[in-house]
Amino acid sequence: xxxxxxxxxxxxxxxxxxxxxxxxxxxxxxxxxxxxxxxxxxxxxxxxxxxxxxxxxxxxxxxxxxxxxxxxxxxxxxxxxxxxxxxxxxxxxxxxxxxxxxxxxxxxxxxxxxxxxxxxxxxxxxxxxxxxxxxxxxxxxxxxxxxxxxxxxxxxxxxxxxxxxxxxxxxxxxxxxxxxxxxxxxxxxxxxxxxxxxxxxxxxxxxxxxxxxxxxxxxxxxxxxxxxxxxxxxxxxxxxxxxxxxxxxxxxxxxxxxxxxxxxxxxxxxxxxxxxxxxxxxxxxxxxxxxxxxxxxxxxxxxxxxxxxxxxxxxxxxxxxxxxxxxxxxxxxxxxxxxxxxxxxxxxxxxxxxxxxxxxxxxxxxxxxxxxxxxxxxxxxxx
Length: 383
Description:
Layout: E1 3-9, H1 19-31, E2 35-43, E3 60-65, H2 68-80, H3 85-88, H4 93-102, E4 108-112, E5 126-132, H5 135-145, H6 152-174, E6 177-180, H7 183-190, E7 198-199, E8 219-223, H8 229-242, E9 251-255, H9 260-267, E10 272-276, H10 281-285, E11 290-293, H11 303-311, E12 315-317, H12 319-322, E13 334-335, H13 339-348, H14 351-368, H15 371-374, H16 376-381
Parallel strand pairs: 1-2, 1-4, 2-3, 4-5, 5-6, 6-7, 8-9, 8-11, 9-10, 11-12, 12-13
Helix pairs in contact: 5-6, 11-14
C-alpha cells in the first residue's frame, strides 16, 4: 500500500496546459508511481469543478470554488497584515478547514508555489514547496522595465516586490525542502537564507511534440499564455520593434490564450496575427521558420523554448529567456537581445544551417529534459 502525499495547488493542475500547470502535473505524475496523491486545489470558475483528471494521477481530488470577489477581499486582508498579495490571493478558508481535518502529522505534503504556503503554516509533518521561480526576482525585473505606476497591476507589482523577499525567506526556512527551476533562481534565493533551494529544471514530453522541420514561408511564432505580463511584454516588444524592420515577407504569429484588449493591441501592428487558444499547438506551430522567446522580464525556465526545440523549429531567444537551459548557443539556439540582432540572424542563416540547428536542439531536449530524468531528486526529497 502506498503512503499518502497531500498536494496543494492554487489552480487545478489539469489539463496540463501552460507552464506552471505543466510542471506541477508532471511532478505529480512521477510522484504518483510511489504515492497516493490527494489533491487540494481552488478554482476560479464553477465549470472547473467538473473537470476530470483523465490520467488519474491523483487518487483523490478536493476542489474548492474561489470566486474573484473573495480573492480581491483576500488581497485587502494581505495589505492589512502587511503581507504579499501573492500569499493571500488564492486562499480559501473552506479548503484550509478541510485540509486540517484530513492531514495527519505523519503525512507528507507538497505545496505548489508560495501561493499555497499558508495552508501548511501549522503543519508539523514533512512538507516540501515547489517554488518554481524566484518570484521576487521576477517582480524586480518587472519594476526595472516599468518604473512608473500606470495601472492597478503596476501598483500590485510594486507593492509585492517589497514584501516577497521576506516571504520567500520564510518559505525556505519553514519547509523541509524547496525547489526552483534554474540556478539563476537558486542564486537569487540563496542570498536570503542559509537553507538553499534545490534546482530541478523543466522537462518536456517529446512524444507529444514530434520533430518536423518544415518551414512553409517566413512565419515567426511565439507560444504563450498572453494573460501573463511577461509573455505579453515579450510579444508586444517583438511585434512593435522587430517585425517592422524584418523583410516585408515575414509575419509574426502569436499562439495562445489572449485577452481581447491584448489581441487588439497586437493586431493593430503590421504583420501580426493572434490565434487565441487553440486545440493543437503542434498544428498551429507547423510550418514556422523561427520561434522566438524575446523575454525581458520573468524568471525561471521558459518551457516554450523546450517545446520549440522538440518540434524542430529554430529558436531565437533573449539571454533572459535562455536562463536555466544549459544548451549550446549557435548550435542548439540563437541569441538576440536587440532589434538589430534579430534582423542579422534572419538575414544570415541558410535553410541547411537552420535544419542542423533544429536537429541539434531536438537531440538536446531528448537527452537532457525528459521528465523522468529531471525529477529524480524530487523522489529523494520525500524518502
